[in-house]
Specification:
- The protein is mostly beta strands.
- 0% of the residues lie in helices and 47% in strands.
- It is built from no helices and 11 strands.
- Strands 2, 4, 5, 6, 9, 10 and 11 form a 7-stranded mixed sheet that branches.
- The radius of gyration is 13 Å and the shape is globular.
Length: 122
């Protein structure tokens, strides 16, 4: 399965962006990680196959919303009230397993997209 992310860009603090990630085939759980310069890749949000279960990191909860359209084989990340600390490369990811893992590790997801850059300036 190949993943193609899009929608990144530069915005002012308080602004919004919507990231999209199209999969070339059927996937189970999907998610987004991000990596800021000099930092480790961290989980942002994840969603199970049905969309009925979601996970958000504490730093983005209440500001970001993950969703998916299984017909289009696409997931989305709507980002509101963006902060400068949200600046990072955002990676979409997916796995054949349909449920969310107990621990949101990089190793919990088998497929990775190329990343899309988000820059938030104050």
């Amino acid at each position: 399965v190949q993943l193609q992310a899009s929608g990144g860009g530069s915005v002012l603090a308080g602004g919004s962006l919507r990231l999209s990630c199209a999969a070339s085939g059927r996937t189970g759980r999907m998610g987004w990680f991000r990596q800021a310069p000099g930092k480790e890749r961290e989980i942002v949000a994840a969603i199970n196959w049905s969309g009925g279960s979601t996970f958000y990191s504490d730093s983005v909860s209440g500001r970001l919303t993950i969703s998916r359209d299984n017909v289009k084989k696409t997931q989305y990340l709507k980002m509101n009230s963006l902060k400068p600390e949200d600046t990072a490369v955002y990676y979409c990811t997916a796995d054949p397993d349909i449920t969310l893992p107990t621990m949101m590790r990089v190793s919990s997801f088998a497929y990775w997209g190329q990343g899309t850059e988000v820059t938030v300036s104050s």
